[in-house]
Amino acid sequence: MNKKIKTDAVDHLFEAVLRLENKEECYSFFEDLCTVNELLSLSQRFEVAAMLRDHKTYLDIAEKTGASTATISRVNRSLNYGNDGYELVFSRLNKEA
């Protein structure tokens, strides 16, 4: 875990997110919390991660998501050398499917 982001404020935010019960509540909360561009950037990174896990090429990912190669590279680095947060969520999503 990155100790730079481990703060009381981030803990408070995560506690709030964990209280959300459905997609509609997520939309309401995140639309209030984030700008449209911030939310679209977060969702783009998540889509990039999913496509990288599916072994799509950078070119395919850039064309489908509009992400820059720099963004794709950063997400790829997180997938390979991060804290396994993406993998945790993807494995849980796959169990529900």
Topology diagram in text:
Blueprint: H1 8-18, H2 23-33, H3 36-53, H4 58-65, H5 69-81, H6 85-96
Helix pairs in contact: 3-4, 3-5
Tell me briefly what this model is.
This protein has 6 helices and no strands.
Your description of this structure?
The chain is an all-alpha fold. It has helices spanning 8-18, 23-33, 36-53, 58-65, 69-81, 85-96. It folds into two domains: 1-32, no CATH class; 34-96, Orthogonal Bundle (Trp Operon Repressor, Chain A), CATH 1.10.1270. 75% of the residues lie in helices and 0% in strands.
SSE string, helices as H and strands as E? HHHHHH
Rounded to the nearest angstrom, the radius of gyration is 15 Å
The assigned structural class equals mainly alpha
End-to-end Cα distance: 28 Å
CATH architecture of the largest domain: Orthogonal Bundle
Total DSSP helices = 6
CATH class of the largest domain: Mainly Alpha
List keywords for this structure.
Trp Operon Repressor, Chain A; 97 residues; mainly alpha; 6 helices; single chain
